[in-house]
Amino acid sequence: MSRSTVLRPSYSLLTLAGLIILSTVAAFVDLPHPSAVPGSLNAADMAWMLTATAFVLIMTPGLSFFYGGMVRPKNVISTMLQSFVALGVISLVWYFVGFSLAYGESWHGLIGNPLTFVMLRNVGTAPHPLLSPNIPFVLFFAFQLKFAIITPALITGSFAERVRFKAYLAFMVLFCIFIYCPLAHWTWHPEGFLRKWGVLDFAGGTVVHISAGIASLAAAIVLGPRSIHGRKTSFVTPNVPYVILGTGLLWFGWFGFNAGSALGANELAALSFVNTNMASAAALVAWLLIEVVRGGKPTALGACIGAVVGLVAITPAAGYVTYGQSVLIGVLAALISQAAVHWQNSRTSLDDTLDVFPCHGLGGIVGMLLTGVFADKVGLIHGSMTTFSYHVLGLAIVITFTFVGAWVLLKVTDLIFGLRVKPAQEELGLDLSQHEESTYHIDEEFEQTYRKEQVRDAVEQQV
Fold it and tell me: What is the CATH classification number for the domain harbouring 266?
């Protein structure tokens, strides 16, 4: 064993030390947190936004059940944890730097000043005149945090069953800082260049779903297929009730996701609430009908996937379209995503484990383009080419930025940590190999063989 190997601290130890230092600084540095003046806040808006924020939070545990029900039993815990852990990691990133990068003082409409709201500096119970005129600014911070949390969690479906946990944590932080925050700034900050162009994204079709879907495509390419991918093996989804539970929680939370983006208890919230339900319902039914038309039977899994695709597609349009248009958006999204899932799985070697790109990526793209078509008074059907044209241009920019950015971040993460688990770890399952937890009994002889390989690898690394 070399001296450098003995003295080299682990990444976990360095991260823990950094967290202790940052939390100590946060506890003792006196930063201004402006308090609200009596009468400056709307009680009804505050009540709704507190509720909506909690709704959106429940979506991430919902996603963990949704994804956890679609993987093999030996990977259920790891898959669910990959979503759940974002609640902790992204909350800290958002507090220390993320919120400032997304909503801080704008630098040429591209990114926020990281010092503007660092550690909630200048963020308190007082409203912000532009971002949160009727509610506490700190509540706006909390609401937007939940969007930042679920976005990297969505990506995990593309590399489920083969990613190293510590590498995923590193990628999640990098993705939030270098991709999610710039996209949020471009789209939602008053000075963001996409917003100034007139690109409409009511609740995150671009910022959340397209970014997650495109990053998922990059991740599936970089990590490569699972060892089981392409084998002629029968695999029955292990826990459909988990998927149904996850879908229910996602649908429930999505009302906060979309209607909460009205930032108040108002007519816009009511419109987007109903549009959210109608698009999801239409996509659910359309997906089932497509399964039957293809010669199969209507499945619970199909109903759940269809419902989520409808939720994704209506997200950018929820506050800008009519009820009937929301139904059409749901149906069209189901048709396109279902066709893409079928093509991806039957005609390509891409192993996007849980079809994140065709469902979230393409679902978000369909929603963004149809927002440019149907948006009230400014859409293509109202005789205006401007909004739709900027949506097409914005879409091209977002796709290029996200794919290239995610590719680079994945490569950097792979270089430092190694993205993919070893074949023996993948065969054993990520629950045991990454977390030493399991929900089912494994073959003892296989586990002993795996343990011997672990010891051998550890010795080889130290020599």
Answer: 1.10.3430.10
| Spatial contact of 60 and 86, defined as CB atoms under 8 Å apart | yes
**Residue 407: which residues within 8 A CB-CB, separation 6 or more?**
218, 221, 222
Q: Give a yes or no: residue 7 inside a domain.
A: no
Helix (H) or strand (E) holding 406: helix 386-416
Give the largest Cα separation in the chain, rounded.
73
What one-character DSSP code corresponds to residue 132?
B
Q: What ranges in 156-205 are assigned the alpha helix state H?
A: 165-175, 181-188, 193-197
Q: DSSP for 323-352?
A: HHHHHHHHHHHHHHHHHHHHHHHHH-----
Quick check: is 451 in a domain?
no
Local structure of 128: helix, strand or coil? strand
Structure tokens at 436: 């030493």
Report yes or no on 232 lying in a domain: no
What is the domain count for the chain? Answer: 1
Residue 371 burial by Cβ neighbours in a 10 Å radius (0-12, 13-18, 19+): buried
Residue 201 reports pLDDT greater than 50: yes
In this predicted structure, what is the pLDDT of residue 12? 85
Per-residue tokens: 361: 């990526």
| Cβ-proximal residues to 91 (8 Å cutoff; 6+ apart), any chain | 145, 149
DSSP state of 217: H
The answer, yes or no, to whether residue 443 has pLDDT greater than 70, is: no
Q: Which helix (H) or strand (E) holds 106?
A: strand 106-107
Structure confidence at residue 115 (pLDDT): 96
Amino acid identity for residue 203 in this structure: A
In angstroms, the CA 118 to CA 303 distance is: 43
Average pLDDT over the chain reads 92
Going by C-alpha positions, the residue among 374, 412, 409 that lies closest to residue 178 is 409
- Domain membership of residue 210 as a residue range: 31-226+238-430
Neighbours of 285 (CB within 10 A): 19
36 is a domain residue: yes
Q: Alpha carbon of 42 to those of 53, 134, 206, 233, 262: distances in Å?
A: 16, 5, 29, 58, 14
Q: What is the token pair recorded at 28?
A: 């003792």
Distance, in Å, from the CA atom of 117 to the CA atom of 130, rounded to the nearest integer, reads 15
Determine phi and psi for 205, rounding to 5 degrees: -60, -40
Top-confidence residue, 229 or 193: 193
